[in-house]
Amino acid sequence: MSNIDSYRRKFLSGVAGTAVAATVIPGVFLREVEAKPVGDAVTNAVRWGMLIDTNKLTDGGDACVEACQKEHGWGNDPKSNDAQQAQWIRKVKVTEKMTGHTVSLPVMCQHCDTAPCVDVCPTGASMKRADGIVQVNKHVCIGCRYCMMACPYKARSFVHETLQDQRPSTPRGKGTVESCNMCVHRVDAGKNPACVDAAPQAMLFGDLNDPESKISKALKQYGGTQIRADLGLNTGVRYWGI
Amino acid sequence: MFIRHSKKMQSFFLMSLMLLIGFGLTACGDSQPPKLMKAVKQFKSDEVRDAHVKHMRKNHMDELLHKRDETMIKGIRTKKYSLNACINCHVPEKHNGEVLRHTNPEHFCSTCHGFVAAQLDCFQCHVDHPVNSDGSTAKAPNDAIHKVEKSLSVPKSDESKKLTLSNNALNSAMNSAITKDVKGESISE
User: Fold this and answer.
1) B62 pLDDT exceeds 90?
2) Are A75 and B180 within 8 A, CB to CB?
């Protein structure tokens, strides 16, 4: 980064900071994703993560699911039945038996640090990018579905039929497994994942490795729950309110 | 009888064989690579264009393979050798009023791949025609809508009834497609 750029960035973030302090009520998060230069490879200097506040999800995550479907074009495969339809993100209702307290939360790939799906893949198709995004390299996926069985979050789907008219940035094809890829094409372009943009009041996307990022600060201050933390997978998606 | 005419037969056979080979060779000599669809992009000069054509004719598969791993694994999303960039330039959005798919021999990729009988795997997953960033255009005949239209068996004479019916069906199909209920699952702790 040149001196001028870093100066400009500092200046702008200073301006934005004062504006935020003055106008935005606490608890409302702003975007903070920064694009890497397009020709550079991703590095493990960043680890992308997501924080979801279920209390602020007024619709329980419907908007996220819809945005994801629109972004990646899943969920409407013409010949698949309901059980076969792909599901990159879904609403899960959790009820505490004792009190009857019910929480609805969106569950997708949790982008584990030590991902079981990556461990079991016989071809290396299920992979973790250097920046922590777990995805399927469909070029080498043979559709064995071991990863689907290994995933404790039931986050992966299998495509059962020949498809056409996929989204240009989300190739999908028969015989391969797929799942949430944290909108990797959007992240590389410096944008938020589609679900985060669909529910900005409740979701925060950012770099977990950067102690100064909003998500890191929020997690440091208030903590964040992992689903099935007992598995020790160090997930990249954390929740509040569950 | 065979023995008596053997010489005649032999010469006839030879003649026809030579003729056949001759025809075959002329046919080979005439064979031209198939004509390809024109690309959208205009190069700065003819030399640059010719270099591009020459290079890609021979090496497009290697470039695409290399680029695919760079993009998938390293997240390098430059436009050069990106499959989407190829498609956006080489395939028109509409051809003869229809979306041009790779199953059509006029599709830029399919023309040559069909000619040399090389299987084209990219489009089993990748989209084979340009799509707007919002996904609006080339958005394919939505299968749900097509099914509904096909399943409607209303007499053609009753145009108004047909219209309302199909509109209703279309609307409901669209609604169900858009706000498809995602099944909630319950986990009790």
Assistant:
1) yes
2) yes
